[in-house]
UPF0225 protein NMK_0190 (Novimethylophilus kurashikiensis), 128 residues
Amino acid sequence: MKPTPSDCPCGSGQPYAACCGQYHRGNVAPDAQALMRSRYSAYVLGLELYLLATWHPDTRPAALDLEQDMPTKWLGLEVKRHETSDAEHASVEFVARYKVNGKAYRLHETSRFVRNQEQWVYVDGKIH
């Protein structure tokens, strides 16, 4: 899916270029929620390198192989909660809805993020 100039895949209501697009182009996300939204948009757009680059090196897989996966149609993102524990730790609870082979799924996760070398990175998540 290629976003139109007026809508970001993360559902923020902002133009893609002013929202997740700026992080996909190399700007650093200012907080964990912005990073999580940009990671959702990266899944929608198939930006595997961005996903790997924003994953903590201790928990990052060698590859995601998104091109090998069954085609996924991402339907929407709802951020339920964003908490910053301190300057270096945060969590974001969200629900992402998607379809694979016409069957609908929802991923309800609380993701953990840390600041690593002055940028937020995804560590891991607890599935609800």
About this structure: Residues 26 and 70 are 28 Å apart (CA to CA). The beta strands are 72-86, 89-100, 103-116, 119-127. The mean pLDDT is 93. Residues 32-45 form the longest helix (14 residues).
